TrEMBL record:
Family: Belongs to the DeoC/FbaB aldolase family. DeoC type 2 subfamily.
CDD domains: DeoC
Lineage: Bacteria, Bacillati, Actinomycetota, Actinomycetes, Kitasatosporales
Source species, domain of life: Bacteria
Official protein name in the record: Deoxyribose-phosphate aldolase
EC category: lyase
EC assignment: 4.1.2.4
Length: 329
């Protein structure tokens, strides 16, 4: 089961040029024309397809593989005002060895923390393949000056973050100021340099329509996102099968047009192994097997890991151990 992958290919300017996307971001008017020229989303059809794919049955052998794959895709996250170095170290230890009683259990993909907690997370996962991700750009609201946002990113990268999760300016996006959003993403990407991959969070629950989610997906990819991410986990509506399916279609179509592969991360609200497997089916049936790897697909859901571990133990022993047999995040 793949848990690591080669570095993502750098965006290919010639591919973008050949695909007719080179001039899309030349001005606000060209960007607006492109984004509003994307096909409209059939909401009924989208939700029906997502629901249909969620009914697929998984055999025992495939389920064991899917559980391990899902574990390897989890970004263990703590983003609370009460976070302490000790809590972050404990989360990092769990990411490296999710089930201390079974060292065959895959490691999680990453630990996601605030910038000031990055050094403690790096210490906890040292010597493993687990990445350290840091939220930035005035997470979760994104209401700060560009100087403050970029300082946030610089702090995270300087502390050793392997990945940066930024939030877009939803107010600018909803006002139709797409070029401002594009330029902010581009500036953050440049600040990440070559040492950190960039995840761009749309907060889909605040974008109101599926058409907006499709536009945000393409906007993020055009600006240089390495990953597009549904949500912060801090609002009422976060990742859903439908909005994740829509984003998977976007990355599939973007690669077909440019040759550049972009990752997807649904975050918030995915709590059970059953839910996670449904999302893996969405990935396989929409974007394809190339995305079934934690380099290209992640779950932003800490509570999910415990249920994955319990279901894994049940497959191995025939007994459901219950939550008392896994560590509390």
């Amino acid at each position: 089961m793949p848990t690591t992958a080669p570095a993502a290919p750098a965006p290919d300017a010639s591919a973008a040029s050949a695909s007719g996307l080179a001039d899309v971001t030349a001005s606000d008017s060209t960007l607006r024309r492109f984004l509003h020229g994307l096909p409209g989303v059939d909401a009924v059809g989208l939700e029906a397809r997502a629901a249909s794919l969620g009914t697929r049955s998984i055999k025992t052998t495939a389920k064991a593989y899917a559980l391990d794959l899902a574990i390897s895709m989890v970004d263990l996250t703590t983003l609370e005002g009460a976070d302490t170095p000790g809590k972050v170290r404990a989360l990092g230890a769990k990411a490296v060895h999710p089930d201390p009683t079974d060292r065959a259990t895959p490691s999680a993909a990453a630990v996601c923390v605030y910038p000031d907690m990055v050094p403690f997370a790096k210490e906890a996962v040292a010597g493993s393949d687990v990445k350290v991700a840091s939220v930035a750009t005035a997470f979760p609201a994104g209401r700060a000056s560009m100087a403050v946002k970029l300082a946030d990113v610089r702090e995270a990268v300087a502390a050793g973050a392997d990945e940066v999760d930024m939030v877009i300016d939803r107010g600018a996006f909803l006002s139709g100021n797409y070029l401002k959003v594009h330029d902010e993403i581009t500036a953050v990407k440049e600040t990440c340099g070559t040492s950190a991959r960039l995840k761009v969070i749309f907060e889909t629950g605040e974008l109101s329509t599926y058409d907006n989610i499709r536009r945000a997906s393409w906007l993020g990819m055009l600006a240089g996102a390495d990953f597009i991410k549904t949500s912060t986990g801090k609002v009422a509506v976060n990742a859903t099968p439908a909005n994740t399916l829509l984003m998977l279609e976007a990355v599939r179509d973007f690669r077909a047009q440019t040759g550049v592969q972009i990752g997807v991360k649904p975050a918030g609200g995915i709590r059970t192994a059953k839910d996670a497997i449904k999302f893996l089916v969405l990935v396989n049936e929409t974007a394809g097997a190339d995305w079934l790897d934690n380099h290209w697909f992640r779950f932003g859901a800490s509570s999910l890991l415990n249920d994955l571990l319990m279901q894994r133990q049940k497959l191995a022993t025939g007994r459901y151990s219950g939550p008392d047999y896994v560590t509390v995040d």
